Amino acid sequence: MSDFTSLPDLALRTNRAGVIAASDESFEERENLIHPWEPRFSAETFGTKGQEYDGWETRRRRGAPGHDWAIIRLGMPGNIHGVVVDTAWFKGNYPPFASIEACRAFDYPSAAQLDSADWVEIVPRSALSGDSRHEFPVADDRVFSHVRLNIHPDGGVARLRVHGEVVPDPILLTGLTVDLAALENGARAIACSNFFYSAPDNMLAPGLARNQAEGWETGRRRDDGNDWAVIRLAGQGIPELIELDTTNLLHNSPAEIRLLGIDHSDDEPLPAADSGDWFELLPKTQVQPDTPHRIRLAAHATRPTTHVRLDIYPDGGIARLRIHGSLTAAGTSALESRWQ
């Protein structure tokens, strides 16, 4: 597995992406490309259009010129580090080649308006195999908002994954109270003690967790320690209120939590939690299972913060973590530089 696949999927439906247009979807609809689950298949399940597939499938072009394509609006604009084209279960009807283009468009353009966008090729025409995952690294540091999957000439693709770093539009964050820990605002979980059941980035995802798997959950500890996760915030900001949600975690939520903060440059490794560089935003606090908690931080505890460390005692799961506050002038400036 390539390193880029650990980055957020900017094209995931649950990260607010959408497939806004396709040249053809005669056999299977385009929306299947960005479902969050792994592609499914059940043999000999025939509908009115033939065998049913969990993916996007176009008709046979029968020698017609051109190729098929689908345009995906990324749920979170950003720097694309790699793309996965998955032809799972498409064995005799996969496209032999694919290429991918990307563009940056402001506001909410229609598919027709994107015709005049400045599309650039980020994955050249590349050979595909049936029933396989194809990982294509991308070396382009521009910010993109849309991608176009081209299949040559036709066929079926189960999933398209677009992994990268989120770069939000500063105008949507500057001068407002925002969620500094939101994935869609550029926050990331950069370290954790354990992610046996699910990854800590899940806590930062948009919306509510529908089940236990959509949060962060650790294995059971058999020692005297505790689990933790470190989150790099969207930018330097002043945290004021946290939301910690244990919904769906009936018998495996933590007993207590604690939140530490630090103002630190990304150029240097983060110091250990007991180094004295971290400060306490929220002391050890009891939490309840299956409950959304909203906690206002004490005024004396808030200060410029770039990273937070969530300690959970002793282990367990968190559905969502929100840290509401505002960006500092330095945080805004850094975000504007990334956006430009």
TrEMBL record:
Gene name tied to this protein: alc
The Allantoicase domain, residue ranges: 18-166, 186-326
The protein's name: Probable allantoicase
Lineage: superkingdom: Bacteria
One BP term from GO: purine nucleobase metabolic process
PANTHER family registered for this protein in UniProt: ALLANTOICASE, INACTIVE ALLANTOICASE-RELATED
Keyword Protein biosynthesis: no
This protein's UniProt keywords: Hydrolase, Purine metabolism
Catalytic activity: allantoate + H2O = (S)-ureidoglycolate + urea
Family: Belongs to the allantoicase family.
Pfam family, one: Allantoicase
Entry EC no(s): 3.5.3.4
GO MF term set: allantoicase activity
Pathway terms, separated by semicolons: Nitrogen metabolism; (S)-allantoin degradation; (S)-ureidoglycolate from allantoate (aminidohydrolase route): step 1/1
Taxonomic source organism: Nocardia uniformis
